[in-house]
Design brief:
The complex is a heterodimer of chains A (425) and B (441).
Chain A (H helix, E strand, L loop, with lengths): L12 E3 L2 E6 L4 E5 L5 E6 L8 E6 L4 E6 L8 E10 L2 E11 L8 E12 L10 E3 L4 H4 L7 E4 L8 E8 L5 E4 L12 E12 L10 E6 L5 E6 L9 E5 L13 E7 L2 E5 L8 E6 L15 E5 L2 E11 L2 E14 L4 E9 L11 E10 L11 E7 L6 E3 L4 E2 L5 E7 L8 E7 L1
Antiparallel strand pairs in A: 1-2, 2-3, 3-4, 5-6, 6-7, 7-8, 9-14, 10-13, 11-12, 11-14, 12-13, 14-15, 15-16, 17-18, 18-19, 19-20, 21-22, 22-23, 24-25, 25-29, 26-28, 26-30, 27-29
Chain B lengths: L20 E5 L4 E5 L5 E8 L7 E6 L4 E6 L5 E10 L13 E11 L10 E10 L10 E3 L11 E4 L12 E9 L2 E4 L14 E12 L12 E6 L5 E6 L6 E7 L2 E6 L2 E6 L7 E6 L13 E7 L4 E6 L1 E5 L6 E5 L1 E2 L2 E2 L2 E6 L4 E8 L13 E9 L9 E8 L10 E3 L2 E3 L5 E7 L9 E7 L1
Parallel strand pairs in B: 3-7
Antiparallel strand pairs in B: 1-2, 2-3, 4-5, 5-6, 6-7, 8-13, 9-12, 10-11, 10-13, 11-12, 13-14, 14-15, 16-17, 17-18, 18-19, 20-21, 21-26, 22-23, 24-25, 27-28, 28-32, 29-31, 29-33, 30-32
């Protein structure tokens, strides 16, 4: 049994150690801990009659996606923004995407493109500008009208501000209204830029897949990108990855991520071509590797990914649950596969007379070489008779390509020789 | 968990006799009274009216009972006001009640303006005390407070403790208020004499949680409606889905207390009737931590820092093991209802853990895991100064191995309810699954 958060509905987001899920039966947002303990719930001020398919939190607001009609996915959907106010989840905005003359939507996954940083300088109550630590790429996204969410300050206060213009300094932002609270340098700031949602359809073409970008300010669709990879996407998220080291550190940046069959795919949305930059293998598949498990939603915390599922396989044991629970995954590279090659692969059975160059390549879930200081690989062999051996027989340090090399020497017996490689981290 | 009142109706209230519980039965057309262990104590047949559907909410304001039931044929709902009768008066002392007599009602019939669907009402009533003894024949009384009393209000005096008038009750209508003195017009003045601290009750309004708004549709947008009483006109209305699907409610002090999904929420009607100012998680899930438990009625005892929740099921946490157990009560095929008390005083309700990573390599080559724990109470507020002990064990699905260690192994929550520790993995090189537990001592 895989029972942890035990949700009744197929939507979830992770905020500050808690799991949140929206329940259309009770019109409430529930808050639970890892083991499913009920911590709290917030009634909605506006009823939602349709099941929420996707739930996100952007640092300030909760965002939900639900179909217009639960029985008809192609009728369209609504994305709503909510805020907790006085113990009630209060609706702030509703964006309706009804299928029509331009698009036939079929969507159940969305995320919010958001960026977190800190204040570069203190800002006092009444100030009409602030300084932020965003890099140039992210700073360029803060255009007039963008809302920034500041806080908490030392008193635990937050506030939403609206940008009137960037500058004049390189990291300065002008506000449309003076600050209500005071903040210190290094206190948190965040902003949301776009909504991204995946549709099985593109424009009016059914089943071809589409990735849509819409403004968080008014919900207007800003771009549509066709791609088969965008079909059957039930779970996605937006996060800034920081788990890579060495040469892979170039991938430490914000990504739109989504689950497509057994892969977690990464798109750098700052790249106008929306190239899928990384793909990480997931284990949402049964032990026989014949059935892919649906992932209903994602929660992200640090370099941990929480996949919301009904079906699980752990240590080769399949199980199913009546409630939705999470299975963990990580952005952090870890070894998932060892590819072995032998050159030559067929040798005469003459003791010590022939050799084969054995190479093991260890790859991580990104199918990139697994590079981790001190990691070793050990070969063992079976078969081949007297003299059949491998050298070195001791642990070999993985090189910068994630490889370990050895030489196999034939023995006296004809037959199958099995070489096994075991990686030790 | 042992049962207590074992009633077969989904409504209950306190009543005139402290320590007893009152419930109204449609099948028996009776107000039943039971002791705290369910032993029948009394029953009063209802008169001058008939219950046409089960009572979904029963309230007691110190003088009157109030019931809420659906109208037949889904026409709406009706609120009825009852009183145990007869009650001792100067004219008819030394009597005891034998019936529960209808007094008044408000019928809310579905219309083009609104559909009525409600299971929860709160009767806005107040209790005052006589501040200095007062003799029979007097035309004024001094109270400890005249807050919320208006000219024209009816005040229900008694039972008296004054010798010669013990147990007697009477009604006066306010004609003027001077400081804390209430003036009234009554032929012959007071019928009884009263001692200091004898009770004076009065009611002002009935609050009703409707599933629907004033759209004329079954929209589940919710509305909290206040009807003045006895005028029975709408004097306040506030729309919001937080008022829809409300399971139970009660009025206590100046607060409207109601159960909505997993929460017991509170509105201070004296200050901000449109604002929920408090919300506590009310232990309303079965042991699977998923299936909701319904609350059928509540009694709010805010002075006693507790709320009685009437339920058909309850979940309790086993001391020491922490295991949750859900009990269901019935007698044959008849469901029974018992109360579960929840404290309004803050106590530890949840501990959430955040990890900078949840996957690490074995000791020596490993990153350590930084863990932050956050302890909150049932109001979702941080709990400071609590010692949290960290431990780890192999998950049942794990392969063989040894869990890691924590440094520190325990810590005290700061003002924000936060503790932190660091986990160092063991030397086990095989892949293992480790459960991390944070226990509040």
């Amino acid at each position: 049994m895989i029972q942890n958060v035990r949700l009744l509905k197929p939507n979830m987001t992770r905020v500050a150690g808690y799991f949140y899920s929206m329940d259309e039966t009770t019109d409430s947002l529930i808050q639970k801990t890892d083991d499913g303990t009920f911590a709290f719930s917030y009634p909605l001020d506006t009823p939602i009659s349709n099941q929420v398919k996707s739930l996100e939190h952007d640092g300030e607001s909760f965002w939900s996606l639900a179909w217009i009609n639960d029985g008809n996915s192609s009728a369209g959907f609504r994305i709503r923004r909510w805020l907790i106010q006085n113990f009630v989840l209060v609706l702030q905005q509703t964006f309706t995407y009804a299928s029509g003359a331009t698009d036939t939507f079929d969507c159940q996954s969305m995320t919010i493109e958001r960026y977190s940083s800190t204040l570069a300088a203190g800002a006092s109550s009444g100030a009409t500008s602030i300084y932020v630590n965003y890099d140039a790429t992210r700073y360029a996204l803060i255009t007039p009208g963008v809302h920034l969410y500041l806080g908490p300050n030392g008193s635990g206060a937050y506030e939403r501000v609206t940008i009137s213009s960037p500058g004049p300094s390189g990291n300065q932002l002008q506000l449309t209204a003076p600050l209500t609270n005071s903040y210190l340098s290094s206190q948190a700031v965040t902003f949301s830029k776009n909504i991204w949602f995946f549709s099985n359809n593109y424009l009016l073409q059914v089943g071809v897949g589409g990735l849509y970008k819409a403004s968080v300010l008014d919900g207007s669709i800003l771009s549509r990108t066709q791609g088969g990879a965008y079909t059957s996407v039930d779970a996605c998220g937006f996060t800034t990855v920081s788990s890579f080291t060495g040469a892979l550190a170039v991938h430490n940046k914000p990504f739109l991520i989504f689950i497509r069959t057994t892969n977690l795919l990464f798109i750098d949305v700052s790249n106008s071509n929306l190239v899928t930059e990384l793909s990480a293998l997931q284990n949402n598949i049964n032990a026989a590797t014949t059935t892919v498990y649906n992932v209903y939603d994602l929660g992200i915390e640090g370099n941990t990914i929480y996949r919301l599922q009904l079906l699980f396989t752990i240590n080769a044991v399949d199980s199913s649950e009546s409630t939705y629970n999470y299975q963990l995954a990580t952005f952090k590279p870890f070894p998932t596969a060892i590819a072995l090659t032998a050159v030559e692969a067929i040798l005469p059975a003459s003791s010590g007379a022939a050799t084969s160059a054995i190479t093991a390549t260890v790859t991580d879930q990104y199918l990139l070489p697994f590079i981790h200081s001190g990691s070793t690989l050990t070969y063992t062999i079976a078969g081949g008779g007297t003299g059949s051996s491998i050298s070195p027989a001791t642990a070999i340090l993985l090189d910068s390509l994630g490889q370990a090399h050895a030489t196999y020497t034939t023995g006296s017996a004809a037959g199958l020789v099995t070489i096994t490689a075991t990686v030790t981290i | 968990m042992p049962s207590n009142i074992n009633i077969s109706q989904g409504n209950f209230s306190f009543g005139p006799t402290v320590g007893l519980f009152y419930t109204m039965s449609q099948s028996l057309q009776t107000l039943l009274v039971v002791e705290a262990d369910g032993t029948p104590a009394a029953s009063f047949p209802i008169t001058l009216s008939t219950l046409r559907n089960p009572v979904s909410s029963l309230k007691y304001d110190g003088t009157f009972f109030w019931s809420l039931e659906d109208l037949p044929s889904s026409l709406g709902v009706v609120i009825k006001k009852w009183r145990l009768y007869p009650f001792p008066t100067a004219a008819l002392p030394s009597v005891s009640p034998s019936e529960c007599r209808w007094q008044d009602e408000l019928t809310l019939i579905n219309s083009v303006a609104i559909k009525w669907a409600s299971r929860a009402i709160g009767v806005e009533y107040y209790k005052r005390l006589i501040n200095g003894s007062v003799a029979r024949g007097s035309t004024s009384i001094v109270l400890n407070s005249v807050v919320n009393i208006s000219i024209g209000d009816k005040l229900y005096l008694g039972p008296s403790t004054f010798t010669g008038f013990v147990g007697n009750e009477e009604t006066v209508t306010v004609t003027n208020i001077v400081s804390n003195t209430i003036l009234f017009s009554k032929v012959g003045g007071l019928e009884n004499s009263y001692n200091i601290s004898d009770p004076v009750d009065f009611h002002k309004a009935v609050w009703l949680f409707n599933d629907h708004s004033f759209s004329g549709q079954e929209d589940y947008k919710g509305d909290l409606v206040k009807f003045s009483w006895p005028a029975k006109v709408t004097v306040f209305s506030n729309q919001g889905a937080q008022y829809s699907l409300v399971q139970a409610a009660d009025f206590n002090g100046t607060e409207l207390v109601f159960v909505r999904a997993d929460q017991i929420m509170r509105i201070d009607t004296a200050t901000s009737p449109s604002l929920v100012y408090s919300s506590l998680e009310a232990n309303l899930r079965e042991s699977d931590l998923a299936t909701p438990i319904v609350v059928y009625d509540i009694i709010a005892d805010l002075v006693g820092n507790q709320v009685y929740k009437l339920q058909h099921k309850e979940t309790v946490e086993t001391i020491n093991t922490g295991a949750y157990v859900t009990s269901t009560w019935s007698s044959g095929s008849v469901p029974l209802y018992n109360y579960q008390i929840i404290a309004t005083l803050a106590f530890v309700n949840s501990t959430a853990l955040s990890f900078d990573t949840r996957m690490t390599f074995p000791f020596v080559t490993a990153d350590k895991i930084n863990i932050i724990g956050e302890v909150r109470d049932q109001y979702n507020l941080p709990v400071p100064s609590k010692t949290v002990q960290f431990s780890s064990s192999l998950n049942p699905l794990s392969g063989a191995g040894t869990p890691g260690t924590f440094s520190p192994t325990s810590a005290v929550t700061n003002a924000s309810g936060i503790v932190s520790t660091q986990y160092t993995p063991s030397v086990t090189v095989a892949e293992i699954l480790v459960d991390v537990q944070a226990k509040v001592l």
